Amino acid sequence: MGLLSNLLLPGRLRTGPTVLLPAKVKPDALLEAVQLADPTAAQDGEELLAAGTRIHAPLELTADLLRKLSIEDEERLWAYRVVAERPLPMDYYDKFLAAGIAYRYGGWSLCEGSADDPAEDDSRLAAVYLPEMPDQEELAALLRGLLRLPEATETAETTEATEAAGTTAEAETEEAEEAEVAAAEETASAEAASEEAASEEAASTEAASESAASDETTPEAGSEAATDDTASEEAASEEEVDEPGKSGLVVQAGQSIVYTGADIQVTASYETRFPAVVAGLLPYATEVVRIAVRALEDGELEGDDLVLEPGKVALALGSALDGPVVDAWGFQILEAEDLLPARRA
């Protein structure tokens, strides 16, 4: 039986999900980490039970066995199999649990024959979970403060100033027109005397107009030019609308509400399946709101700031809106530094 188990072991580990760690973790420390994903996680002998999954006791893998798993650069690793035993709180929860453990201990997640490093995952984010969707304007105002963006009232003030200037100009124009009418009445006799000269001038103007008309572009060409100008203006306008800009907050409302500003994107949406830690904190919820905070791929954030800055925003939102904050794998975070991966020696 032992021999059969050893023969089947590489296949089981390869199928996964399996956590591969460079060092053996103390059971108490591992339990403490897993309880960030499921507060009800508990020890069962040498194994752990968490949210419908069983984390098996660690197995020492030597170089020969690692070669069978296509891992060439390591001489010794410790393997923790993560096996689903009951319905999971969300799809692929066992995979998320394995990746979250590997991320915290500088290891790899082995699943379906592929050993992946969660620290290289581009989808890393922090998410706030709430029982209800917050008011759109309230959330936008909160984000402007957290991202240190200008208030939306600047546009309104500019519009009011423009309208006031337009009203003043209108009044001045009316006064000028009245003055012109009065002057015209006083010089009526002078105009009558110059009618003959005006007649000659009109004839000259008509001749000039005919000459200019012969040089003008055809109606079709003029229409095409106008269309091209209009298309160019519309394209420029669309570019201005689509470009988020670094000085303001762009809000796109639909099935999800997306806020973009300061190289950070915040997406609020409804979810019917969510991590075990959220289910434990919101026990009666069948649908929750997930506010995901991540760095823009083409933004200027680099290095640790790619996770630290979104993490700070998520924690501030969680504090203001009274909701738990979790990472990409469903582990609760209490500080932005919790989002940083473990450093390998």
Automatic annotation (TrEMBL):
Instruction: Give the region (Disordered) as residue ranges.
Output: 152-248
Which residue intervals are annotated with compositional bias (Acidic residues) in the record?
Answer: 171-180, 226-242
Top-level taxon of origin: Bacteria
Q: Where are the compositionally biased (Low complexity) regions?
A: 152-170, 181-192, 200-225
* Name under which the protein is recorded: Uncharacterized protein
